[in-house]
Amino acid sequence: RWEDYLPVEQRMPGTRFLAFKVPLKKNLAPKNVLPPWIFFNKLQEHNEELGLIIDLTYTHRYYKPEDLPETIPYLKICTIGHQIPDDDTIFKFQCAVNGFLKENKDNGELF
């Protein structure tokens, strides 16, 4: 599953969304680790700028927000995997997206 996907893809066409694998701590399986610095290097290669990280994992074990640049806001929305998110989770995500788009309508930052 993990190996089938690239760590960072290009933005989703017609949106400001950029999907990426969870950057993992160094103490987890080395071949599966995506340290945050690799992720940010990939963004630079694509000439993209990140304005918000929305973490949709249901755990805090993968990485710590303090490992991320302080200049990029981070939002955690715990989302249970392998099922459709409940209405509250969907609402939180919609509010985050709409708030970001409203605050960043004059730039091309991704989230």
From TrEMBL:
<protein>
    <recommendedName>
        <fullName>RNA/RNP complex-1-interacting phosphatase</fullName>
    </recommendedName>
</protein>
<dbReference type="GO" id="GO:0004651">
    <property type="term" value="F:polynucleotide 5'-phosphatase activity"/>
</dbReference>
<dbReference type="InterPro" id="IPR051029">
    <property type="entry name" value="mRNA_Capping_Enz/RNA_Phosphat"/>
</dbReference>
<dbReference type="InterPro" id="IPR029021">
    <property type="entry name" value="Prot-tyrosine_phosphatase-like"/>
</dbReference>
